[in-house]
């Protein structure tokens, strides 16, 4: 079998000189696939994704993108390789307009990126309507759309989302998930950490349940939703 498009393979590590948070943890996503990381608070979900993005030191394991070992690359260099990352908080420039936020997302590009901005507006029509409005005036769900749109401006092959639906209403969450599915349909791989585990697994091609920095369950989203132990321990029955 060929290797997944992006894989954090057997990752062990933590922040700085602190203790290991991840223990032989493996996370991967294929082209155009949605992979979701779920688990209890403190399970190492966001840490696992940050490790894939190069934001902490690995003591063991490797990260490979499209067959290339990128373990030693900085997050900035990984962006240049095609990885987009949307942190959970402080992910927009509040005093800048929506359009200026998107333009900031194109910082590594030397070509004309107007077409990409229009594609973002097609994906998130509300942003087109509010393109000249300061991003800080938008609702929580609209801000998340700006953050995702800005990450898409680099034309990534992989989009990594850290709890994209945190703090938004169920209606907005459903809408954001719909947009994420649309992004994946364009061939972009999505790796997502999500607290709303049941809803996230419903749209996931692949799901990872982490507990204390270790892989506890790995399967398709539907198989995990149907697993009695997963349901009882992590999905509220």
From TrEMBL:
Gene3D superfamilies named among the record's database cross-references: P-loop containing nucleotide triphosphate hydrolases
- Sorted UniProt keywords: Amino-acid transport, ATP-binding, Nucleotide-binding, Transport
What GO biological process term is on the record, naming one?
A: L-amino acid transport
What region holds the ABC transporter domain?
6-237
What GO MF terms are annotated?
ATP binding; ATP hydrolysis activity; branched-chain amino acid transmembrane transporter activity
Identify the Pfam families for this entry.
ABC_tran
Q: Which domain of life is it from?
A: Bacteria
Q: Which PANTHER family match?
A: BRANCHED-CHAIN AMINO ACID TRANSPORT ATP-BINDING PROTEIN LIVF-RELATED, HIGH-AFFINITY BRANCHED-CHAIN AMINO ACID TRANSPORT ATP-BINDING PROTEIN LIVF
Q: What family is reported?
A: Belongs to the ABC transporter superfamily.
Protein name as it appears in the record: ABC transporter ATP-binding protein
């Amino acid at each position: 079998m060929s290797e997944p498009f992006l894989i954090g393979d057997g990752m062990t590590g933590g922040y700085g000189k602190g203790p290991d948070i991840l223990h032989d943890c493996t996370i991967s996503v294929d082209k155009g696939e949605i992979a979701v990381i779920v688990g209890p608070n403190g399970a190492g979900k966001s840490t696992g994704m940050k490790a894939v993005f190069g934001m902490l030191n690995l003591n063991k394991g490797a990260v490979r993108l499209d067959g290339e070992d990128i373990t030693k690359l900085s997050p900035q260099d990984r962006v240049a390789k095609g990885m987009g990352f949307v942190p959970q908080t402080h992910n927009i420039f509040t005093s800048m307009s929506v359009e200026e936020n998107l333009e900031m997302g194109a910082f590594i590009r030397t070509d004309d990126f107007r077409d990409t901005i229009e594609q973002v507006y097609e994906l998130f029509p509300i942003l087109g309507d509010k393109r000249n409005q300061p991003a800080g005036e938008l609702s929580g769900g609209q801000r998340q759309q700006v953050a995702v749109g800005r990450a898409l401006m680099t034309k990534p092959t992989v989009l990594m989302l850290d709890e994209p639906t945190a703090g938004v209403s169920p209606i907005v969450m459903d809408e954001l998930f719909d947009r994420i599915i649309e992004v994946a349909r364009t061939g972009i791989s999505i790796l997502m950490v999500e607290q709303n585990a049941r809803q996230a697994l419903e749209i996931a091609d692949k799901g990872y349940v982490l507990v204390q920095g270790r892989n506890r369950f790995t399967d398709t989203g539907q198989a995990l939703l149907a697993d009695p132990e997963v349901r009882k321990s992590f999905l509220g029955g």
